[in-house]
């Protein structure tokens, strides 16, 4: 019997991935860029036990048994096994019991699948002693999972090869490059989202002209600009691109037919509050970004965390304290 445990953190995109050019291989239509959070707060943990006595593969998510015949899970397993160290021998034939859990709401637009599949793939790679980049394998679980394989500021290159070998993540800068950077996660709702990101982006690819315009004309320049801002630690430039990209992503969701609404009234109040706060400060101190859900991620620098957190607590008093990352 062999048991391994691994953890992977959540990543929050500042230039969003939205739309696939290949549904099966999960190849995106645009590059994206994110920050990986510290594992101290929001992460997924996977434990895998392999045994010659297990009759079947089994899988538990957050303590509840789920179907192992999940296509994405099996794609990750198949790809990892292709790269397994030949010395694994019989281990490759043993059945697996996989337990995965998140320490935060699942499928509420808080990148749970990114952390979940990154934890799964890195734990499988430890089990089978896989070497080299595994981000392309994590991508087969959930596109954004490839970015959670690396820490700090991470770019996912859309790649050009039909098989997706070059659609991989790479680190732009480590977390220690910009240690003052912080994220506040405001959990507006921990309900599961109405439209999955998979179905939302599929519908956007089919119907949104704005999506094509963004992928071709906007994202390439935006990725270059935000990398420049990160390298120079230019928070104002970083924040402006982050907010513009979040807004454009949600504009695409509206431009999708039928539209998908991920933000709610509280999300929009947070956007107004951030702009009012930045105006009052006479400088861009805080940036918001929203994924496929109503919850806000605020990027800001360490010095401004206490003031912004107390402002949020004053304005939304019924909420529990935002978690600092
Ligand atoms: O990896 P998925 O299929 O959960 O898609 C994630 C899409 C966004 O979170 C909205 C954007 C992103 O780049 O993470």
Number of strands: 15
Uncertain runs: 321-325
Strand order of the largest sheet: 1-6-9-7-8
Task: Give average pLDDT, whole number.
Answer: 94
Distinct bound molecules:
(3R)-3-hydroxy-3-methyl-5-(phosphonooxy)pentanoic acid
Cα separation of the termini: 37 Å
Main sheet makeup: 5 strands, mixed
Family: Belongs to the diphosphomevalonate decarboxylase family.
Catalytic activity: (R)-5-diphosphomevalonate + ATP = isopentenyl diphosphate + ADP + phosphate + CO2
Protein name: Diphosphomevalonate decarboxylase
GO molecular function: ATP binding; diphosphomevalonate decarboxylase activity
Please give a structural write-up.
- This protein is of the alpha+beta class and 325 residues long.
- It has one domain: Ribosomal Protein S5, domain 2.
- It contains eight helices and 15 strands.
- The chain has a five-stranded mixed sheet. A four-stranded antiparallel sheet has the order 2-5-10-11. A four-stranded antiparallel sheet has the order 13-14-12-15.
- (3R)-3-hydroxy-3-methyl-5-(phosphonooxy)pentanoic acid binds next to helix 2 and helix 4.
């Amino acid at each position: 019997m062999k048991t391994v445990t691994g953890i992977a953190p959540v990543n929050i995109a500042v230039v969003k991935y939205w739309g696939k050019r290949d549904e099966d291989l999960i190849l995106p239509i645009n590059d994206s860029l994110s920050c990986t959070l510290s594992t101290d707060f929001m992460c997924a943990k996977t434990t895998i036990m392999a045994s010659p006595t297990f009759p079947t593969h089994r899988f538990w998510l957050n303590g509840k048994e789920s179907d192992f015949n999940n296509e994405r899970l099996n794609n990750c397993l198949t790809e990892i096994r292709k790269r397994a160290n030949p010395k694994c021998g019989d281990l490759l034939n043993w059945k697996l019991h996989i337990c995965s859990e998140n320490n935060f709401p699942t499928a509420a637009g808080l990148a749970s699948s990114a952390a979940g599949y990154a934890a799964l793939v890195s734990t499988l790679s430890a089990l089978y002693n896989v070497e080299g980049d595994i981000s392309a394998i994590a991508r087969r679980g959930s596109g954004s999972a490839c970015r959670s394989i690396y820490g700090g500021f991470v770019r996912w290159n859309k790649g050009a090869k039909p098989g997706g070998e070059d659609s991989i993540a790479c680190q732009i800068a480590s977390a220690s490059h910009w240690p003052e950077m912080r994220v506040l996660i405001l959990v507006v709702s921990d309900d599961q989202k109405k439209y999955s990101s998979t179905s939302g982006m599929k519908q956007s690819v089919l119907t949104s002209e704005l999506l094509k315009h963004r992928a071709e004309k906007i994202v390439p320049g935006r990725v270059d600009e935000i990398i420049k801002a990160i390298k120079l630690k230019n928070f104002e430039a970083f924040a402006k691109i982050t907010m513009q990209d979040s807004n454009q992503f949600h504009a695409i969701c509206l431009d999708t037919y039928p539209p998908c609404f991920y933000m709610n009234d509280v999300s929009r109040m947070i956007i107004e509050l951030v702009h009012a706060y930045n105006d009052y400060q006479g400088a861009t101190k805080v940036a918001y970004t929203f994924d496929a859900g109503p919850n806000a991620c605020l990027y800001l620098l360490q010095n401004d965390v206490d003031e912004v957190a107390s402002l949020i607590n004053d304005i939304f008093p019924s909420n529990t304290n935002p978690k600092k990352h």
